[in-house]
Amino acid sequence: MITQRFKESLSYWWAGLSPEVSEQRILSSIPHLQQAPTRDNRNILTLSTEISTLGNNRAVDHKIISSEIPEYCPRQWHLNRIKLHGKNCVLNEFTIERLNEEVQNNLVILHGYGGGLCFFYKNFEALSRAPGWRLYALDLLGMGRSSRPPFKINAKNPEEQVAEAEHWFIDAIEEWRIKRKIERFAFLGHSFGGYIAIAYALKYPGHLTKLILASPVGISENPNQISTGARKARRVALNSTATNTQVPREPIPMWLKFVWAVKISPFTLVRWSGPLGLKLFSIWFKREFKQLPPEELQALHDYTYSIFQLPGSSEYALTYIFEPGTFARLPLVRRIQDTGRQFNDCLDNSQSSEHLDCTTQRHRGKVIPFVFIYGENDWADIEGGYATEQIMNTHGGQKLNGTIKQERRKDQSSGKVIILPDIGHYIYFHPQFNRVVLDEIKNIATPTAKDNLY
What we know:
The structure is a single chain. By secondary structure, the protein is of the alpha/beta class. It has a domain at about 70-250 and about 330-450: 3-Layer(aba) Sandwich (Rossmann fold). It is about 40% helix and about 15% strand. It has 16 helices and 11 strands. The strands form 2 sheets. Strands 1-2-3-5-4-6-7-10-11 form a 9-stranded mixed sheet, sandwiched between helices. α2 (about 20-30) packs antiparallel against α12 and α6 crosses α7 (about 190-205).
């Protein structure tokens, strides 16, 4: 149970929480989805229900009653461990397939900093209703239940450190894509996951049909580090569109600056603090996710604390990519105009994307549509979304002046911002979010062989 008493925290901490069981407990309670049979399903489910506070064997009951929903195609989920190149490099993958239906499109979902795929438990069932779509949710390498190899940055230059840290995540995602033989997919990322999705698009643009960025961080320039003239111009440019309800930013506390300077992860403090860390975590968690029903709050609390307790790994990338707070060292607003329209050597569609012996003909990629989704009370910088929208909707035409008419037409209207009213940063807990995402993916055309060209 979520407790703020030290004695109860001590006994709870001593008992320990299994990340695998905590994850299984949440996924098994999602209604209307079946788990694909595996060798050890039964043992995990039995253990899960023994420690579950959901009551009445709810995790098992859902599997019994959810064989088929008349208005939707039967759906089945799998939990897989995808081995990557390198020692102890494994991605944790959750996927939902629609039975007896051809897969036409893929949606890949990415969690925020320090989180895991189970944070989308309220979205999996709703988003898997889309005909022709297969869903994947990944734990970032070094987070969630993915493996935790040692994280080390060798670069000395700050910009090179940012690039090396970004490549840690996006190269793993690209290797996963190749292993899964996915040619094209829509990418949905929340918070830090949104940042990584854009970074992926900058390096591997030829495989994306759309970027759906939910409360992404790292977009904007730090207003304290740009000139007065640029700051005024920024305000004027965004005045007509930016929301006036965004949560005001507080000064960065000294302790946070110290943590950044010595490159200590926030989760390190939780691990070092033992039962006191659990108590402080529980206080924070209950305040942060108070909108959830008690049973769901408890299950997500147990899952989150269990993955926070795992060995530190890519969580240490935070201080390389970001300044103290949520502003990126290399803001994406500086780089995003290059996304999707890069010149790249095209891959022969008859060959595997693992091979590089493709034709030397060069093509511009099709523009990647961007959708920014924020909560009205989001602490993520909404102005960054509006600034990017302006850049993406105007820069393409300037960049393609002098090119053929067909090329210019491909580059129109590539960005938009959607604000969900009365919602904070964790927008995926709300039904409006599912409706918006379904609306955004329903108009994505089925990829063709021609689309696979960069």
